[in-house]
Design a protein that fits this description.
The chain has about 45 residues and is mainly alpha-helical. The chain is built from one helix and no strands. The chain has a domain of about 25 residues. The protein is elongated.
Length: about 45
């Protein structure tokens, strides 16, 4: 969190992402698809 310092970036943040969403590469919709492992569970 920054005060009076808009546009500041943390060097640990990944580059890229979808437009200006602020989610970065890992936490956007496309990034979560790579982490998710969909499965079907029947009882």
């Amino acid at each position: 969190m920054w005060i009076n310092k808009h546009g500041a970036v943390d060097p640990r943040m990944p580059f890229g992402g979808a437009k200006q969403s602020g989610y970065g590469l890992e936490f956007g919709t496309e990034g979560l698809k790579h982490l998710a492992q969909p499965q079907v569970i029947n009882y």
